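For reproducibility, we list the full input for the guanosine-5'-monophosphate complex.
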Amino acid sequence: HRSKEIMAARDIERTLDRLACQILEQITDHESIALVGIQRRGADLACRLCGLLSERTRRKIPCGELDINLYRDDWTSSTATPNINATRIDFSVEDKTIILIDDVLFTGRTIRCALEAILDFGRPEAVKLLVLVDRGHRELPIQADFIGKSVPTERDQQINVFLQERDGKDQVVLS
Ligand code: 5GP
Ligand code: MG
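The corresponding predicted structure, in tokenized form, follows.
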């Protein structure tokens, strides 16, 4: 079983720095920026980006999270049912430019479900999508606005995202 390192710790650090810069470049009204991470590692990434963005803008960027599970037998099955377990968005989404954040973008079904959950909270100005890894194989017309790295994969491959706060190291591996 062969594994290949896609991103080392320093790559992840630089990538998050770049993504923070791109966000501030593209969303010029910094006061409107709010983040929503998808559990679990998307929420970890949202926390980190919140730190970077808050530092750069010298304001507290709001950050929430959605807990969405996709029930399917394995990663390769396309018959999955997204399920919202919990939402923690304790700021008003009205007129915000919300950046939805996940670690890996695959079929897009989780994002579709996340969009519905966010729109239940109100009417944001816009919703943008940020992912650390885009592994392809979309089944819905969903694309990311901010991409850490595009990694062509086979359907039956898997991207393993390790993050310091959860896994004790920063690394992205294709296996
Ligand atoms: P979707 O198919 O809805 O785009 O992805 C389903 C969920 O599983 C998302 O939260 C996505 O981040 C995660 N996911 C899909 N493929 C992979 C993968 O290869 N590795 C990891 N770590 N997560 C994945
Ligand atoms: Mg995920």
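The CA atoms of residues 20 and 52 lie 7 Å apart. The two ends are 7 Å apart (CA to CA). Both points were considered when choosing residues for closer inspection.
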